[in-house]
Design a protein that fits this description.
Strand 19 and strand 20 form a beta hairpin. About 30% of the residues lie in helices and about 25% in strands. It is an alpha+beta fold and about 700 residues long. The chain starts with a helix and ends with a strand.
Amino acid sequence: MKSNRREFINRSALLGASVVLQPWQFLGTKPVYAAELQPVKGLLLNKNDLPRIRETIKHPRFVSFWESMVNADLQDDIKFLRDEIDLYNHVFHLLRTWRMLERSSFVAMVAEDTRHLDVAKRAIDRILQYKRWDYFLEGGEITIGLQRAPETTIAMSCAREWIGESLDKATIDEMEKQIAEKGAPPCYQTLFGMRHPDRVRGWSFDPESDYDFRYDLSRWPIILNSTNLKVIPICGLGMAACLLHDKHPQAPRWLDMALQSARAFAPMYGSDGSYDEGVGYWGYTTLHMTMFVEALYRTFGTDERAIINFPGTVRHALQMSMPTTGNPNDAVNFGDARNMGDTSVAGWIADLKNDGVAQYVLKEMGDIRSHFGIIWFRKEVPVEKPGKELYDVRFVNDWVISRTGWDEESSVVAFRSGGPANHEHADRNSVIFKAYGERLLHDPFNAAYSNTLPLWVLRYTKAHTAVLVDGKGHQYHDGSEGTNPSWAEAWILNYEASDRYMKATSDATDAYRLINDNIGKVLRTVVFLKPNVLLLFDRVILLKDAVPVQARFQIYNDDEKGKGSVNGDRFEIERPNAFLSGVCKSSNTLTLTSDHITIEGDDSADLYIGQEKIERPAIGAYPFIQAENSSALEHAIVSVCAAQKKGEKAGTIQIRKDENQWEISGEHDGRNIKVTINDVGDVPEIIVA
């Protein structure tokens, strides 16, 4: 009988490992009981860390999160585990179960809480009953682990260490056995497939799994190789290898795969620490990379703690922050990144480098959503408030951020150039502008992850503060493979920043030309006159057919408190605490209108963002202002947007054109405005008086 590739690989690895190890699972030798052989250091903490951790949970930054864990509705958890769990539901039910296991085993250890210990034991029992720990297959048979298998492996590994003294030997043996069967091999299979996509025998959804959506997974081994869904199995496999390093013959092989994969993924971070999937995914990804390299160092002394630019990446998260009234965790939400997310990993970076800025991020930015923030916090690391040197940045991925500070009242301008990335939108050359605690030019939240859902439309260029050519945006995919990258590229051609202003020019020509061979040039220049005036200069050149061009200005209205109005060549965007007064001029006939994005589809259908169910938005929930330039082969549109506090007087800014020169002048917020734009090529000459 012919053996398959997986059987051959497993036998070969076992034969090699058996020279130096005793493979208890296959040769029938007795497994070593955990209490008889403990590593010198735990995977992520030692029991002698508990006094420090018990002090940390009293710290104002962590007390709320700690109380949310301690005071979780345990009776509801027990009811779910006893009566409601579906052992073929991985997306929601296994997710909930491993999360309660990790939470309750941590609380049981730190607080010696028997109620949480009971829930943790029940969660372990249920996890052990799952046939598979993930809902993806290779060749219709072999489980691959993208999220649930690695996440469950991590939770089971942590629980094994944190509450192992309170578990019976049979439970510990079964936990370790299933980690070695349902956890590590699926993670290995995933990473092997990403390394050798030509050898993959087809990835697919498990037909037994209770999941409503289906995508074409044929290219996922290639697509996911540069996304956060590579780091999660890296961490799961690495944690399993560290936990079972002296107990299972496959552990060296697992560790080798995890380490090689981590090194291969590291360049997905820029040399400056920037991360293309957005700051909302940054915390999740960086946390799992950190957990692996920390467990590796603590278990073997192998130091990979410089695998990425950790000080740089925490500054990247800081610079992507955008605290806003009503949402202190707001962020520059390019793509699907909805907010700052969990910043727990900043504590590890602060401790590793004695990094005061990282300590500031941990204590002041984003959320603490993970007990690892509690584990890694060291109160002796001083806080260093970031200074003006971090106000302006052009990341190596060509995202540009300019700001006036770090609090809710500060102004932030974000300019999206650069290349494609997982979880991206069709948003090249789009702009976000926040001032006086309000989002005044917006990038919409809540775009659907599935192309079958109505809110998928929010991913398109028309839903962003960007340019349309004859009503159409730039290239984007159809969503049949998920939220994978498009082919759209843009580049920053020029960038300059000072205390007074920031200016940058981005070329998105190739992104538009991919679907429109009439495109000659699509360029946008942004000039931010700090603290509250934003200039946009859009140049579109067509090759053969004269068509109209539109510039859109999206309005934040998730709370139904945003609205826009038009008066001739001027417009206004209103929010509760601030407003934006705008004026537009063009080289041709320009028409301003107020409209909204139409959300089509079945009104009765449930809406999800990833795995989170949301309320259906009302008609008109996504309003915008549009400036349309009449049909021509060459277009130039100048837009000036001046922000002001609610109740204050708007400025008086004028735009005048003379040949290829534009003069912007006037007064706003007690200061004179004078800017000259000389249209002399792809990068215009900008003179700020």
